[in-house]
Amino acid sequence: MALLDEGALASALEGLAWELEDGQLVKVVRRSGFSGALAYVGEVAGLAERAGHHPDIEIHWDTVTLRLSTHSVGGITCADIALAAGIDGLL
Predict the structure, then answer these.
(1) Are the C-beta atoms of residues 55 and 65 closer than 8 Å to each other?
(2) Which of 14, 15, 36, 67 could form a disulfide with 32 if both were Cys (CB 3.0 to 4.6 A apart)?
(3) pLDDT tens for residues 13-70?
(4) 60 secondary structure, DSSP code
(5) 74: alpha, beta or left, given left = phi > 0 and alpha = psi -120 to 50?
(6) What is the DSSP string of 17-44?
(7) Which domains, from first to last, does the chain contain?
């Protein structure tokens, strides 16, 4: 799995609702309360399991922060972009 170069990453980000922070794709989502946040995480987990690629997830009551990168290569790959697009489709 290869890292995306700057041009490919910039192009991919144009179609996604994610931010680039410290070499990771980051998305912050607010849901209705803690159980809404947990339900959303469950949906994300289903996508991640099917993809065999998993985001780092933080839950703070009604707010979920997702971070995507491919740890084995130290940055963002096509797998991250594909999972980010799938997660965007949940909203």
Answers:
(1) no
(2) 36
(3) 998 999 999 999 999 999 999 999 999 999 999 999 999 999 999 999 999 999 999 9
(4) E
(5) left
(6) S-EEETTEEEEEEE-SHHHHHHHHHHHH
(7) 6-88 (3.30.1360.20)
CA pair distance 8, 51, nearest whole angstrom? 21
Residue type, position 19, single letter: E
Look at residue 91 in the predicted model and tell me its pLDDT.
Answer: 74
For the purposes of burial, counting CB atoms within 10 Å of the CB of 91, is it exposed (0-12), middle (13-18) or buried (19 or more)? exposed
Helix, strand, or coil here: 12? helix
pTM of the shown model:
0.92
The candidate with the shortest Cα–Cα distance to 91, out of 27, 25, 19, is 27
How many alpha carbons lie under 13 Å from residue 8 in its C-beta half-sphere? Answer: 10
Report the C-alpha dihedral over residues 76, 15, 52, 68, rounded to 10 degrees: 40
